[in-house]
Records
---
Amino acid sequence: MAAPLKGIDRVMDDKRIEKAWKALDRLRIELPSWGFANTGTRFGKFVQAAAASTIEEKFSDAAEVHRLTGVCPTLALHVQWDLPEGPADAEKVEALSRKFGVRPGSINPNVFQNQEYKYGSLGNPDPAVRRKALDHILDCVEIAALLGSRDLSPWFADGSNYPGSQNIRKRLHFMEEGLAEVHRALKPGQRLLIEYKPFEPAFYHTDIADWGMAYLLARKAGPQAFVLVDTGHHYQAQNIEQIVAWLLEERMIGGFHFNDRRYADDDLTLGSIDPYQVFRIFHEIQMYEWEQGRTADIAYMVDQSHNLKGKIESMIQTVSTAQALYARAALVDHERLDRLQQDCSLVDAEETLRGAFWEDTRRAVKEWRKAKGLPEDPLEAFRQSGYLERVTAERREKNIGSTAGYA
Ligand code: LRH
Ligand code: MN
């Protein structure tokens, strides 16, 4: 690879730039439709005039981010919010996908919002509610088939708030039954990604609270079931990259919901609090891929809610940060590291890993974008595009009217 490398300051030699570029060629990031909408916390929602509230506006905003970054070809859909009529809305969504050049991505059932889910969905003691939840998830399998989406990624808020108020083992049994029926309904090639979360909205026990529970449920459900790791769904002291390493080794990792947090499931912008955490996760994946000599079958998805920052700018920040950190993880000399780990050369091994993290790949990423005919600085390009001004004018009326308080 010769000419395009001219002008890149020589901190990174050609070989390393090539490694970074190869990694960038591979990385694709799926954006969440709900990340473009007005969201808040239980203490309120600060409405943004430019926010997307229709599925058309969400596709439009996702297409703008894809236009500027070139690496976000799919949009994750949350069925109750994006396809309120269920499978009947699939045709409309397919048309929007064609119009905006962004494919429907993972299909997220919603079995946590409706009143009937007060005591849970698939884990609810009431068989009628379990049936209702199951029927919704089976509709989502249908929607995924109609839209050509591969992944069904349900998250269950199921759990309890007080010791003794529910039978944890019976609920586990109900969950297993429900997930087995979902797995039986999957089409060939579809995947069931089971997401775990330790707490919230349940504050005593959550039925699928950690990676081990999701792993066991996925194994029991069947060969098309895998675990989804939402980086915000861990206790502070948990070693997330160790969980990722185990799930890789077990070939049970299906995908990620990337975000960042300082305390709990804060859903902040990726790498805004702990970029080294994301780097360590990317490293475990790329070291595994180097050992296996193949790319791991992982869906890199974002799950964030931008309560204060501009939503499209936050998405562009997220994608740029992910690219910079993924490119850095590609700079790790896996061969050397493997040897040093084997020899227990602790400091040199650590420095081989950290050394890559200290490398500033942003220049190489800019040059990669230039070589792809993409704007070197997608955030600046977005600000120059007039897109925000246009959608703000179009959407202000509708959005400003809709303020929502806690109670
Ligand atoms: C739950 C969760 C889940 C989504 C929701 C928007 O905290 O991470 O993935 O369905 O956020
Ligand atoms: Mn999530």
---
Amino acid sequence: MHNSLFTPMKNLLPIFLAFLFLNLIACEPKKPAPEKDNLEGKAWWKEGVLYQIYPQSFKDTDGDGYGDFKGVIEKLDYLESLGITMVWMNPFFESPMVDNGYDVSDYRGINPRYGTMEDFQAMLDGMHARGIKFVLDVVVNHSSDQHDWFLQSRSSRDNPYRDYYHWWPAEKGTPPYRHSLFDPEGAWEYDSLTNAFYLHTFAEQQPDLNWENPKVRQEVYDIMKFWAEKGVDGFRMDAFQFASKDTTWPEFPEGHEKDFIKWYGMRPQLHEYLKEMYAEVIEPYGVFAVAEGAGSTFQDAHDLVDADRKELQMAYHFETVDLSRTPEGYDLADFKNVFSKWDSAFAEKGWISIFLSNHDNARMVNRFANPDPKFITPSTQLINTFLMSMRGTPFTYYGDEIGMTNIDMPTIEEYVDVEALGKYQAAKSSGQDMEEFMQILNYNSRENGRTPMQWDATLQAGFTTGTPWMRVNPNYTEINVSAQDQDPTSILNHFRKMTKVRKENPALVYGKYELVQKEHPDIYAFTRKGEGQNLMVILNFSKNSSSIKLDQLPTESNLIINNYSDVNVNDQDMSLNLKPYQALIFSFD
Ligand code: GLC
């Protein structure tokens, strides 16, 4: 009996094995398994440090006054020396440059100002050879009005590209008022060619793409695939919260500029689009994606980056950069609150980026550190220590590793930025106090963050041999890479130490964050615990000395980083006395 059962099984074994083998072949992925993608747990994009390059301002090699790819290639060793592991570069595509490249007229073409596709490839290969990943800026909430899609779309009402954009036929009357971020006259623009209005959330030359149209979405995925095939490792989705908008076109209620996203963006369809994008591009190509904006609620943020939902891997919010918009600065208590709140939102799931500046903001040093020459070094080191110690991927904006500051531009004539000019017009027509307006613009404008990189003390800061597209900050003779490169106490070398500290201490990446003495008026202290480590981060945000009592104190052997040469502890009363802007990290049991 036993035998009779066993025999047929034995005869079936080769068939079963063949079946198993065929199945294994069938299941084998067509493409090599994407080793770069890891939504759960540990991931390279969580462990990395990102450096943002504004290509126009980084390094010019042909003397035309604009930075270029060859300039970045020339500085690859510098990038490697920083210890950064990812580069996000602002748009370099074909563009009429109304919004410095955020108005794209050909998503596959390179603006000759920056070089050629071969130069791009050489730059990308050079980064990869140094272990640096590349993040591409994808500007697809809108295109340029010079993009072929828009030229077609506006040419006639029955053009196949008509529905690539949002149109309002004039026979329906004037569309309900919508606020525009850049255009004081609102977001609908009349186009006489077809007697209709088109929508532009940003400048008039940046018409919004219609994401409800599946063809538009497919075009975008094809563009992303094109770049993924060239080898880019990630995407930054520009202004993406607006991709899905309320197309019942409600009237914009006055005074709601701050709730802009709530009124116009983050519609539920956004999640559907992202899921589609994830399945089409992100997963099969093993790339990662970070969105500009995290919605207007924690739930939004969660849903965007919750790994189980397969939408995005990372998002960033504006609550911290919004803290310091006027020369009065910010309150440390608010600063702690915002960072702690967002950390708790992602305590279990999801991931954010940690940043205090970028191309849309004035310089971090002026807004969050202290540009006074007496304090600029320790205070910038403190801020950089902070950025590298939080949970979330640190994003460093070019120049912040050497403490570049705002430039003084007190009169409107010097401004070229579409946002600044739009705000100026709006302020003027609403009768604002223009002196006060200019003071705030001078402090807060994004032109501050776009001045050429300060490489050395030679003419034009070593950025160009020609006339730079934007004035070099006159403080380049003091603040520059060359002056700091060999000085072990410089902002630059502190930055390099911090990228190393972050790499060597996984608790800084994955560890749990907990505030210590939340109410302390000068000191931001917190612990990071995990990966077998307990770390304490102590930052004196004041220009005066300050002290804090702790259960554990730093010693020679547990000190991980210190931006001064000594530490002043009092074992008697367990207090730690910190110098102005002193920043420490130490481990404890
Ligand atoms: C994003 C970009 C900004 C640009 C805007 C319109 O906010 O960061 O620089 O002006 O989108 O594309």
